[in-house]
Amino acid sequence: MPRGNPQYLKSFPKIAPEGSAPKSVAVRIPKSQYEAWMSLPAEERNDYLRNAIAQKLIEKNLISA
Predict the structure, then answer these.
(1) What is the pLDDT along the chain (65 residues), one digit of tens a residue?
(2) 37, 29 in Cβ contact below 8 A?
(3) Contact 38/30 with Cβ under 8 angstroms?
(4) What DSSP string describes the chain?
(5) Judging by beta carbons within 10 Å of its beta carbon (0-12, 13-18, 19+), is residue 47 exposed, middle or buried?
(6) How far apart, in Å, are the Cα atoms of 40 and each of 30, 32, 44, 62, 65?
(7) Straight-line distance from the first to the last Cα atom of the chain, in angstroms, rounded to the nearest whole number
């Protein structure tokens, strides 16, 4: 592949309107809930986690609503 030719690269869509964090977030869940959690669509899981994180930051007055 020639250098400087980005045609072979795939573009990644932005997840959140403001972009995403430079690193992903790892969440540990109980083993008994894993199968049920993973059966949800990825978009639904991500939306739920984003909303939960934002709500917790608002509760702790780390961001404004």
Answers:
(1) 556 666 666 666 655 667 778 888 899 999 999 999 999 999 999 999 999 999 999 999 998 87
(2) yes
(3) no
(4) --TT-GGGSPP---SSTT---SS-------HHHHHHHHHS-HHHHHHHHHHHHHHHHHHTTSS--
(5) middle
(6) 16, 15, 7, 29, 27
(7) 48
